[in-house]
Amino acid sequence: MSVQHGRVTVEKYHGTGNDFIVVDAVESIPDRPAFATTYCDRETGVDHEESPRTGADGVLFLALESMYSPPRVVMTLVQPDGSVAAMCGNGARVAAAWAAERTGADELMIDTPAGTRRAVVDGDDVTIEMGIPSFAPRDVPLARETELIEEDVEGLTVTAVNTGVPHAVAVVDDVDDVDLESVAPAVRHADVFPEGANVTLASRVDADGESDVRAADESDAGPHFRQRTYERGVEGETRSCGTGAVAVAAVAKRLGLIDGDETVTVSPPGGDLRITVPDGDSATLAGPAEREFSDELDTVVRST
Ligand SMILES: N[C@H](CCC[C@H](N)C(=O)O)C(=O)O
């Protein structure tokens, strides 16, 4: 069988700097991992004058099922290393924005391998239900039968939580004091995480906004953390990670750093996200999801 070379129209979106190439799943892409690896490359990948960055953090293949009310979107995220992630908080917000643009609906159901997530779109702002974060060893998953709470893993004190995908969260004094690219790979591949883990740093922003100028205006707006995440599948730090932001709030609550059901602001390098982690109920993730451009790409890429 010969593969037909073709062109596909794609769009580029980002959620607080976590950027994705979006492809309608009806398009025939013969080799999704090769497509993702090629076009996500930060030096040689998809490039456009309307976009601040070459490449992307992943390719979202989205299948719109508009016959349902609310409309549904089956989301498959193929990462730059060719792997498929079970969940992506910012990707799911982008999926909702993409489907809202096509259907005019402001409520959508996003079907992911980690479960169905309800999204509400309000202009550029998208809120998505993220499920209940789990510290249970089987859910994270961990290669042991006890939870991993504030323990040393490869030199970093972390708490393990699953927010759709596994995160090892380290609460530190200042996220900028950690050389993430150096310390994260050993944690990400540690034996205790049989499926690997995303590595997320969190630091509390003082009420007076000392470690973050944005906090000055928001000092009375509830708890505020800064976040940095080294992502499995990207194998590097991203500008934002939605499951990581929820993980920061869930771990902060678990460690007693915050209480109650108030909204937590989590600020990765790419912007601000609003999180809730109510007891026994689905967490929520809210923030902007923005379209950058549309482009045409070859469906078949030369393997390198
Ligand atoms: N950036 C995504 C996470 C992708 C998950 C992935 N890196 C993995 O667990 O393999 C987010 O906004 O939640």
Explain this structure to me?
This protein has 304 residues and is α+β, with helices and mostly antiparallel strands. It folds into two domains: 7-130 and 289-298, Diaminopimelate Epimerase, Chain A, domain 1, CATH 3.10.310; 133-281, Diaminopimelate Epimerase, Chain A, domain 1, CATH 3.10.310. The protein has helices spanning 32-40, 89-103, 180-188, 242-254, and strands at residues 7-15, 18-24, 58-65, 72-78, 84-85, 107-112, 115-122, 125-131, 151-153, 156-162, 166-171, 198-204, 224-231, 236-238, 264-267, 273-276, 283-288, 290-298. It has an 18-stranded mixed sheet that branches. Strand 2, helix 1 (32-40) and strand 3 (58-65) form a beta-alpha-beta unit. The longest helix has 15 residues, at 89-103. It starts with 6 loop residues before the first strand and ends in a 6-residue tail after the last strand. The protein binds 2,6-diaminopimelic acid. 2,6-diaminopimelic acid is lined by residues 18, 85, 88-91, 165, 198, 231-234, 238, 241-243. Its main location: cytoplasm. Residues 266-304 are annotated as: Disordered. It catalyses: (2S,6S)-2,6-diaminopimelate = meso-2,6-diaminopimelate. The record marks 167, 231 as: Could be important to modulate the pK values of the two catalytic cysteine residues.
Topology:
Elements: E1 7-15, E2 18-24, H1 32-40, E3 58-65, E4 72-78, E5 84-85, H2 89-103, E6 107-112, E7 115-122, E8 125-131, E9 151-153, E10 156-162, E11 166-171, H3 180-188, E12 198-204, E13 224-231, E14 236-238, H4 242-254, E15 264-267, E16 273-276, E17 283-288, E18 290-298
Parallel strand pairs: 2-3, 4-6, 11-12, 13-15
Antiparallel strand pairs: 1-2, 1-18, 3-4, 4-5, 6-7, 7-8, 8-17, 9-10, 10-11, 12-13, 13-14, 15-16, 16-17
The structure holds 2,6-diaminopimelic acid (API).
EC number: 5.1.1.7
Region (Disordered): 266-304
Site (Could be important to modulate the pK values of the two catalytic cysteine residues): 167, 231
